[in-house]
Design goal:
Elements (H helix, E strand, L loop, with lengths): L4 E7 L4 E5 L4 H9 L6 E5 L4 E5 L6 E10 L1
Antiparallel strand pairs: 1-5, 2-4, 3-4, 3-5
């Protein structure tokens, strides 16, 4: 059970405060869950990068990005 909502092909520009390289979606999700400052995360599968976000911008479509929002 989780309080996250997940979106495929979406991003919330801005609010990025931490980048995690060479990771996967599950590790990105767990990193956000364990960080009280994290309000959302964007996982870029092609680059295997996770971006933790402490602010929510205006949603936009973004091919190859999976978004999780608390």
């Amino acid at each position: 059970m989780s309080d996250f909502t997940s979106y495929s092909g979406m991003d919330l520009p801005g609010g990025d405060y931490k980048r995690i390289r060479q990771t996967n979606y599950l590790e990105c999700f767990v990193a956000c869950v364990g960080d009280n400052a994290c309000r959302a995360f964007a996982y870029v599968s092609k680059k295997k990068e996770c971006w933790l976000k402490n602010a929510l911008g205006r949603p936009r479509t973004a091919k190859g990005v999976d978004l999780g929002v608390k």
